[in-house]
Each structure stands twice: as C-alpha cells, then as structure tokens.
Specification:
By secondary structure, the chain is mainly alpha-helical. Helix content is 69%, strand content 0%. The chain is elongated, with a radius of gyration of 29 Å. It starts with a helix and ends with a helix. Residues 42-127 form the DUF4939 domain.
C-alpha cells in the first residue's frame, strides 16, 4: 500500500507542477501580448521622407522615374514585401504609352508580374531607348 500511496502523491505533485507551469505560460503569453500592443502603439513605422514618384509617360523622364521608384521601394520595404507588390506599384504609376505597354501584364498576368528584376529589365528595354524599342517592335 505504501507504494500506491507514494505513487498517488507523486502523481498529485506532478499534477500540481503542471498546473503551475500552465499558469506561468499563460502569464508569459499575456505579457507578450501587452508588450506587442505597447510596441505597436509606441513604435509606428518609420516615416518615409521620399514622396512617391510622379506618373511616368514620357520617355525622356524614364531614368529618373525608375530611380525614384526604386528609391521609394527601398525606403518603404515593409510596404513591398513581394516582387508582385513592387511590380504592381510601378505599373500603377504608368500613363499613356507606358500604361498601354503594361496593360497585358494586368489583364493576363504572366510570370513577369511576379518577377521584379525581370520586370525592370523589360521596362528598361521598352522605355530607356525608345528608338530601339520601336525598331524591334518589342512587346511583353
């Protein structure tokens, strides 16, 4: 009987320890939630000192436009976690012939929509040297 009583005491002690452990976990989780709420309210995202680029539609503005887009994206990296978000942001700033060029990317999205580097390469080919692009009759 002594062995059974000892086993019951050990089991009760173990049960008590588990309950205490669970209370500690709940307390730590509550502290973590409070800390996250405090951090969120006291630490807003850093302010971006660069304005979004103006819309692009003239070939003579292309290098400046592209540089401004890349700078804006780098300074607001938290807003552009995926290639698709970067590409879509740049497409949203296109107008005129540039917007017409990008329309197929939005209407029937090819893999290029998900490839920021590849998209920049194609955009550069299409608008950095408009005479060459016209001569090649370049399309996406």
């Amino acid at each position: 009987m002594e062995g059974a009583a000892g086993g019951s005491a050990d089991l009760a002690e173990l049960h008590l320890q588990v309950q205490q452990f669970m209370q500690v976990i709940a307390h730590l989780q509550q502290q973590q939630v409070q800390q996250q709420a405090t951090t969120t309210t006291t630490s807003p995202l850093p302010k971006c000192l660069v304005s979004p680029p103006e819309k692009f539609g003239k070939n003579v503005e292309f290098p400046d436009f592209l540089a401004q887009c890349q700078l804006y994206i780098k300074l607001r990296a938290w807003d552009f976690p995926t290639d698709k978000m970067k590409v879509c942001f740049i497409i949203s700033l296109l107008k005129g012939q540039a917007a017409k060029w990008a329309t197929p990317l939005v209407v029937a999205p090819p893999p290029l929509l998900y490839n920021y580097s590849g998209f920049l390469d194609h955009l550069f080919v299409a608008f950095a040297n408009p005479q060459q692009a016209a001569a090649d009759n370049w399309k996406v």
